[in-house]
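Q: A reviewer asked whether we had any structural model of the full assembly, not just the individual parts. We don't, so I'm hoping you can provide one. Inputs are below.
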Amino acid sequence: DAMVIQNPRYQVTQFGKPVTLSCSQTLNHNVMYWYQQKSSQAPKLLFHYYDKDFNNEADTPDNFQSRRPNTSFCFLDIRSPGLGDAAMYLCATSRDRGRTEQYFGPGTRLTVT
Amino acid sequence: GESVGLHLPTLSVQEGDNSIINCAYSNSASDYFIWYKQESGKGPQFIIDIRSNMDKRQGQRVTVLLNKTVKHLSLQIAATQPGDSAVYFCAGRAVGGSNYKLTFGKGTLLTVNP
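A: Here is a predicted structure for the entire assembly that you could use as a starting point for your response.
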């Protein structure tokens, strides 16, 4: 009964080699978020989609991009991963952007070699 | 903006005891707060939320208290069990501006000793 699914759970990529992480949801929520979480730190919001409207956080590097081809799927593209991009990447959804709960996926652990 | 932080990075309790995890926030206009539990290698899991028009909300074995006067909230876990061992994050939403954005605190690691 998974509601927010992330694939793969573990991803290893080489320095500078583009990588794509995927997220899908069965909740039919309007909003999908991508967070970066480094070890022993809180999740940090990278960007979100409200329906098809993309909203980037001011401090998100240009190296990070996202696509949302339909309601159910959202992708995180890292164009040229650096060693500092190794982290857990969390996808979350919410029904809307107001005072509603965000549901998180299990995350993708990215390793950069 | 919103700044949310936790008083203690770690908390160790005995099984069966009650646990209290504290969180402070800086923006008095914040109107919504969530507590998340994150087990090792997993995504955050919703525990309980509270709106600013409330000062207390109870769930199953958990209670969240909100004190708007001192901008403080706490998560109380009754009869703590080994399965409660995890990192607990509070997150707050500020009214206006980026009103979609939850700002997370640093997290408290709760360890339950059998």
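A: Points you may want to mention in the reply: Chain B touches chain A through 22 residues (CB under 8 Å). DSSP finds no helices and eleven strands in chain B.
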